[in-house]
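User: I've been trying to design a sequence by hand for this structure and keep getting stuck. Would you show me what you'd pick, starting by listing the structure so we're on the same page?

Assistant: Good idea, let's start from the same input. This is the structure you sent:
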């Protein structure tokens, strides 16, 4: 992942992890792994996600279901 300036994101962007319905514990773990958006996972399959530190099946399922919920809007 490339380093990004967090000031570039609008506060109400629905793609930001903080603006999703993900539990705060999941958001904290994903932030520690340097993820900021749901779209960071678009090109990753489940196996690639599991190889990342701090990511488990519960987080993967939550991210996938949140992606579907946001895309349905």
């Amino acid at each position: 992942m490339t380093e990004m300036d967090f000031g570039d994101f609008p506060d109400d962007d629905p793609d930001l992890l903080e603006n999703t319905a993900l539990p705060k514990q999941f958001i904290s773990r994903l932030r520690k792994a340097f993820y900021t958006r749901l779209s960071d996972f678009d090109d990753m399959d489940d196996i690639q996600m599991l190889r990342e530190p701090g990511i488990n099946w519960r987080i993967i399922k939550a991210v996938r279901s949140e992606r579907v919920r946001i895309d349905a809007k």
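That's my pick for every position. To get oriented when you compare it with your attempt: The chain has one domain: 17-72. Residues 57-71 form the longest helix (15 residues).
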